[in-house]
Structures are given as structure tokens and as C-alpha cells.
Write a structure and sequence with these properties.
By secondary structure, this protein is mainly α. It is about 75% helix and about 0% strand.
């Protein structure tokens, strides 16, 4: 008799009467949104890093000429200090004064001077 006395709701939706239909599993929407937002975030970060790498490469290329020029000037200065140190070791008074002044100003003259032959 119980089966014969079904309500109109049970007739329209036969799954509504079962307890499994009322207890649906947890929604997967938060998980899907979290994964999607992480993918978007990682994509954005990757794009930004690619742009930054390009900018840094451009800056490095722009600094090549000044670095080479500074190395050239440093080599010239080292040669000048070495030659002045040689003159000072041979007794030139002006060269000795220059070497003393360079040492007083903190330029390591002895590091550039070659041992006497």
C-alpha cells in the first residue's frame, strides 16, 4: 500500500524520493576555480619573466661598450703606473713623488710594479 500512495512529486521526479539524491557529493567548483586561477597566475608570471629577461638582455648589450672602454682605460692606467714605478726605481725624483702620492691616495702601486730584471 505504501507504494500505491505516491505523491505527485515522486511521480514527476523518481530520484527525489531516494536518499542518495538529497546527499550530493561536495561541489568541485572551488577546486576548479583554484586550479584555473593558479594556471592564470603561473601564465602571467611566466610572461612577466620572459619580458624581464628580454629587458635585461637589452641592458646587458647596451653596457658592453662602456665595460670594454673601462677595461681599456684600466689597462692604460696599469701600464702608466708600471712605467712610472720603473722610473722611480731608477732614481727619477719626479716619478718617486708621483708614486708616493698615488700610494697616499690609496692606489696600490706595488701591485702593478714588476720585479726588477
Amino acid at each position: 500500500m505504501e507504494n500505491e500512495a505516491r505523491t505527485t512529486e515522486e511521480i514527476r521526479d523518481p530520484d527525489a524520493a531516494t536518499p542518495e539524491a538529497a546527499e550530493r557529493g561536495p561541489s568541485r567548483l572551488p577546486l576548479i576555480l583554484t586550479i584555473a586561477s593558479l594556471l592564470v597566475w603561473f601564465g602571467f608570471q611566466t610572461w612577466q619573466l620572459v619580458l624581464e629577461r628580454g629587458n635585461l638582455s637589452l641592458l646587458k648589450g647596451n653596457l658592453e661598450a662602456p665595460v670594454q672602454e673601462s677595461q681599456k682605460v684600466r689597462a692604460q692606467l696599469e701600464t702608466l703606473i708600471t712605467k712610472t714605478s720603473e722610473l722611480a726605481s731608477h732614481g727619477n725624483a719626479n716619478a718617486k713623488t708621483v708614486i708616493e702620492e698615488l700610494e697616499r691616495r690609496g692606489i696600490p702601486v706595488r701591485a702593478f710594479a714588476q720585479p726588477s730584471k
